[in-house]
Write a structure and sequence with these properties.
There is one protein chain. By secondary structure, the chain is mainly α. It has two domains: 44 residues, no CATH class; 35 residues, no CATH class. The chain has a two-stranded parallel sheet with strand order 1-2. The chain contains two helices and two strands.
Length: 80
């Protein structure tokens, strides 16, 4: 079962395969010390989509058009 974990979160022995999906390397992290098995920068969202998604994440569900999913919806779906 896939799990979502932030790149700034410490790695654990039960993490399994760690995949970083990000176009830019996270600030303040040394590439040699981060436990990342695969980096998929080509499948990361565009800057425009990231900006839109950040805006949606702070909106209440009443402010969103019908059919728009939020970050909480994605996390809830993956965590099942």
């Amino acid at each position: 079962m896939p799990r979502i974990k932030g790149v700034y979160d410490p790695s654990g022995s039960d993490d399994g395969l760690r995949v970083l999906v990000e176009r830019l390397w996270p600030r303040g992290l040394n590439r040699d010390k981060v436990k990342v098995d695969i980096r998929l920068k080509d499948v990361a969202p565009s800057s425009e989509l990231r900006s839109w998604f950040s805006l949606v994440a702070v909106c209440s569900s009443d402010e969103l058009p019908a059919g728009v999913i939020t970050k909480a919806d994605v996390v809830r779906h993956i965590s099942r």
